[in-house]
Known about the structure:
The chain is α/β, with parallel strands linked by helices. It has three domains: 32-123, Phage tail protein beta-alpha-beta fold, CATH 3.55.50.30; 131-197, Peptidase S8 propeptide/proteinase inhibitor I9 (Alpha-Beta Plaits), CATH 3.30.70.80; 206-452, CATH 3.40.50.200. Helices cover 25% and strands 27% of the residues. The strands form six sheets. A seven-stranded parallel β-sheet has the order 15-17-14-18-19-20-21, with helices on both faces. Strand 9 and strand 10 (166-170) form a beta hairpin. The protein is globular and about 70 Å long.
Amino acid sequence: MQVFSGTMKRWRCLIALLILAWGFLAGAQTNSLVWHKAGDRVDADVHNEALLPLLKTIAIQTGWHVYVEPGSTRSGSAKFKNLPSGEALKMLLGDLNFALVPQTNGLSDLYVFRTAMKNATHLVSTQKPKHVPNELLVKVKPGTNIDALARLLGAKITGRLDKYGVYRLQFSDADATSAALSQLQLDSDVQAVDYDYYFDPPPTPESISPSAAPVGQLSLQLNPPPSSGKTIIGLIDTDVQSLGADLNQFILQQINVAGDPSSDSSITHGTAMAYTILQAIENSTGSGSTSVQILPVNVYGGSDEQTTSYDVALGIQAAVNAGATVLNMSLGSSGDSSVLDGVVAQAAQDGIVMFAAAGNNPIDAPYYPAADNGVVPVTALSQQGQLASYANSWADPSMIALPGTGVVYYDGEPWVVQGTSTSTAIATGAFYGNMFKNSWTPTQTISAMQARFTVP
Length: 456
């Protein structure tokens, strides 16, 4: 395998590398776990469920505080009825160790670990992800009359992605939404239905003194792209502002899928990510020129604080339709939308390469769309090359780790941006830089990345 030869020019250590998405897996079987607390009996029919979602279900049903040793994994199947809780835990947890410790309040603490009980330090969160009130996202089979289905449910169709068979439905109140969810889950024409989850706000770039910033700004030059077969990175993020005459040639006309951008003059997260991608391309190619261009897709509208599963799905469709072959998604949510999963899976099946941020809350739990099949999850390294204190990660052999801090220039002034979103932008830019510099295929590039940049 060739050695990456991109040079470090800017902030600490911008590493060169990349990726290719793989195909998606077919829908999983429905899992069932029922904890009868009154009789201390458990029924289970669980198929290949990852450890953290399983522990979360246990915590919610029992009321226990559940602690797990970071890095522990378990993906197996168990089917039984009417077992005592101790025997049920043995069946569910497999070769992992556990200790159930009663507390004075009548509840218990459950410790799950590989090595020692004292290492089970991560508290499994039972907090439910936030979603848009009175809305559902539904993905239907081809040929389904969505308008008739909406009328039957008493819903209003407020968003359509006909290419993917995805629709946003609005209901009159929470009760109507809940009833429709139950009905749609049993409908044979429905492939997936879920809430429209909110995404976490992106980190805000912070101004720094010029004396504390690396010397020099980007000097990347644009090679005229070919009339056909252009190389386009879809940047699904907030509004991207002007980067100045020299760099604006790399930025295509922005697509706004969630309304017009705000008129805020302060640097946006999307602007910082666009600069970081270009910076990584320059660092990894070493040639100072590229024909790659960035297509900004604003999924936040006039707010840098809030987007949803539906708007991200809409952004994916818009970017792919406009010719993007790689997507940078420096955003995410703890809410796993099965509908957004389906859109991501279709993009992966179409050969779209996708990078997404692993999240800036170290919960050791999947974060979406980074955890979706077909997406390369990216977490952050500290300046010392260790996993950053804020960085989320989970057991996933496809995850890569890159520097989480970068310096960008906007309107001539330096700004520092930190988080797994920065790591994601570095990965996206370096993917193209190394693929073209070394004449690698996307598959070769991702193989080199997976071997070189594992999570500490």
